[in-house]
Amino acid sequence: EQFQTPVMLRSTTRLSHSKSAVEATEPQPREFTTLPPFKREEKSTHVIIPAVARRRHPEIEARLRDIAVWAADQAFDLGVNRVEWKGKALGVVTSGMAYQYVREILPEASVLKLGMSYPLPLDRIRDFASQVDQLIVVEELDPFIEGQLRAAGIIVTHGKDIFPRCGELTLAKVRAGAVAAGLIPAVTADPVAPTPTLEIPRRPPTLCPGCPHRAFFYNLRRYKRRAIIAGDIGCYSMGVLPPFESMDMLISMGASVGMAHGFKQAGGQEAAVATIGDSTFFHSGMAPLAAAIYNRSRITVAILDNRITAMTGQQEHPGTGTTLQGEAGKAIDIGEVVRAMGVTFVAEVDAWDVDQINRGLRQALQHEDGPAVLIVRGACVFTRHFRRQPRMEVDPDKCVSCGTCFRVGCPAILKSDEVYEISGKPKAMIDPLLCTGCTVCMQVCPVNAIVPVAE
Question: Strand pairing of 450-452 and 392-394?
């Protein structure tokens, strides 16, 4: 607020995945304060037309210089940036989690720890560098700090020539870089305790038992030989994994519709299917759909509406009818939105009705007048909207070990100890603790061996 500028708090992967014990205290009441009355300036600085932009540019550059002065003075007084003097043979400039690795691997080095990585306090760093024999930069992962120091004429002995640009910085990788540069002697045994090697079953990510996306991908798999499938960011990203393997491309949130549209605009001969979630559709799916409608692009857009933003923690969105504060809001109906945009084929199907989804997909792929939209509705199993049904069980006398139920990819369906005498393959069983009673496995079983448990 002092400089009237946004501040970004950057978290690295390791920091985001860390955990520790915390002391819980009583929540402190917070007073909601309203903004002061808007003050209209005689010469507005908020309407950035070219004339204003030219006037504002020098002001922004001056503000950045002021922030750099703050980073060199008050930031050190407050401990945001700090210097830890030890030996003068080696100095390290570092920030974030990398600091912890440096202190453990190079305990005798002097360290300049940056809590604020931009703008850099270049004069303080230059003074630090002048008092050590060698200066290295340890940062994760791109050479952001290193590049600025080299551009300022500060001699950096080592940086990304010994530390990796890819993956994730770890204690072992920092040690390996230090050894390679001759900063520390090589050790015959790695002092970092190795991760115990345990013989445990693989646990690849999978859709939850009862997930409303399962029946859709079970059906979509049937069409992947005649269509390219563009995926999106969400739980449904796991459609790329076995047993579905029904996704050809996935880049970023909201890109699926645009990729499918672009494929057809570029002359793609196969059918094009885009899969996108309800929250992603509201976030960034409508603009590419508008482009597809405008260009009458023959694509199929499957909107998987599970009534929540599931993958990132069950956040509400404009389609749920509840605000992020838990208050009642106005639910926006996706079907009404796409019809109002001009989509002429809109089908809404039950997420757990295998045959209904198959018919909807087939009809959507046959539609020729612009994009077709298939809305697959079914609440995430972790939402208040989901209703658990009587669980399923396998009748071992009917099971012929055909494996069809395993192809729905449900974690609740397991191989039993009993085998089918003709094929010698294990029969199926259903874990009663995991089953939600979604009935998808029952619908696909060709011999009707899966039935509801009699309550």
Answer: antiparallel
Which one-letter amino acid corresponds to residue 245? Answer: E
Residue 60 has pLDDT above 60, yes or no: yes
Determine the pLDDT at residue 197: 72
- The maximal CA–CA distance of the chain, rounded, in angstroms, is 89
The residue with greater pLDDT, 125 or 47, is 125
Residue 416 and residue 344 in one domain: no
Mean per-residue pLDDT, 260-277: 97
Query: Is 314 domain-assigned?
Result: yes
Size of the chain in residues:
455
Q: Is the entire prediction scored with pTM above 0.90? A: no
Confidence of residue 195 (pLDDT cuts 50, 70, 90): low
Q: Answer whether residue 59 is part of any domain.
A: no
Integer CA distances (angstroms), 290 to 277, 282, 309, in order:
17, 13, 22
CB contact at 8 A, 285 and 257: yes
User: Counting runs of H as helices and runs of E as strands, what totals does the chain give?
Assistant: 14, 13
CA distances from 50 to 44, 57, 61 (A): 13, 10, 17
Digit-coded pLDDT (tens) for 221-256? 999 999 999 999 999 999 999 999 999 999 999 999
| Helix H or strand E encompassing 335 | helix 334-341
List the structure tokens of 212: 């409303």
pLDDT of residue 76: 92
CATH of the domain at 154: 3.40.50.920
Tokens 């204003």 correspond to what residue?
A: 52
Summarised one tens digit per residue, pLDDT across range 107-149 is 999 999 999 989 999 999 999 999 999 999 999 889 999 999 9
Residue 13 belongs to a domain: no
Q: Domain for residue 14, yes or no? A: no
Q: Which of 377, 402, 420 is the last residue of a domain?
A: 377
Q: What is the DSSP letter of 295?
A: T
Range in 46-55, 118-127, 294-303 the model is least confident about = 46-55
Do 261 and 133 lie in one domain? The reply is no
The pLDDT value given to residue 188: 61
Tell whether 174 and 226 lie within a shared domain: no
User: 337-373: buried (b, 16+ CB within 10 Å) or exposed (e) per residue?
Assistant: bbeeeebebbbbbebbbbebbbebbeebbebeebbbb
Residue 408 sits at the vertex; the CA angle it makes with 421 and 246, to the nearest 5 degrees, is: 130
Q: What gap in Å lies between CA 217 and CA 378, rounded to an integer? A: 14
Residues 324 and 248 in one domain: yes
DSSP secondary structure string for all residues of 83-116: EE--EEEEEEEEETTHHHHHHHH-TTEEEEEES-
- Crossing angle, helix 122-130 and helix 144-151, to 10 degrees? 80
